[in-house]
Amino acid sequence: MIFDILTLFPEMFLSPLEESILGKACEEGLITVNLINIRDYAEGRHRVTDDYPYGGGKGMIMKPEPIIRGIKAIRSQHTETRVILMTPQGSPLRQEVAKRLAQLSRICLVCGRYEGVDERVRDFVHEEISIGDYVLTGGEVAALVVIDAIARLIPGVLGDKGSSEEDSFSQGLLEYPQYTRPREFEGRKVPEVLLSGDHQTIEQWRRREALRRTWERRPDLLAKTELSKEDQELFDELKGSSGTR
Ligand code: ADE
Q1: pLDDT tens digits, residue range 40-60?
Q2: Residue 6 CA to ligand 1 centre (angstroms)
Q3: Which pTM value belongs to this model?
Q4: Which residue has the CA at smallest separation from atom 10 of ligand 1?
């Protein structure tokens, strides 16, 4: 997967892309991240990339020409590139969005700054993505979130560290509780069932706890998830024992 990042602050990407799993994925060529400075496409001696908003108002707006020139330069060389604008006005990033994007070969992430980008930039992007209902100082951190969420779905990136198929969200549920040694810490014990070695019982316990956690914390997710007959039985058991129904 190749990412082309259009940004005014390419250096913001360096350390996150050098460390840990993403660092290794870059090193092994499983992902490539090209950092492109929008300023390189700005004109004039001062290479200005922002300006005052027409109609007045606070803050500065990113000018359309440098961004659009940057997008066109990438698309002229790689027509298959999907162009995505990072903005709080975009559609929410969800696991299924990351899965869809992970199928692509090349993605260009456009990072806005200041109070936003000139509206005409929108005519040159395929989609707009928000990483959540809050406003960041710019699209860079959001773009890193998108890169991370996609990269770990690319075969080979997680290696034997784990499979993304069991993640929270990938089956529409939050993940079950996990424990490691010691067996007891300040009086808090690891659930007995996990020490039993009985894989079937452990699987069932994990599934029930995943259902419980999702029901307690994210009932909205549960409402969207189709439960198997076994899940429904576990869920009914849960509801029965909770005393609320
Ligand atoms: N830029 C600023 N805030 C953002 C957000 N929440 N998601 C994506 N891009 C952004």
Answers
A1: 999 999 999 999 999 999 999
A2: 15
A3: 0.95
A4: 87
Helix (H) or strand (E) holding 71: helix 64-77
Residues 60-78 pLDDT 10s: 999 999 999 999 999 999 9
For atom 6 of ligand 1, the residue with the nearest CA is: 88
Q: How far, in Å, CA of 97 to CA of 86, rounded?
A: 14
B/e letters for 143-176, b = 16+ CB within 10 Å, e = fewer, are bbbbbbbbbbbeeebbeeeeebeebbbbbbbbbb
Question: CA 181, CA 231: separation in Å to the nearest integer?
Answer: 29
Residues 61/116, Cβ–Cβ less than 8 Å = yes
Whether pLDDT at 245 is above 50? no
Q: Which CATH number fits domain 184-242: 2.60.120.10, 3.30.160.20, 1.20.1740.10, 1.10.1270.20?
A: 1.10.1270.20
Residues with CB under 6 A from ligand 1: 86-88, 112, 130-132, 134-136, 138-139, 142
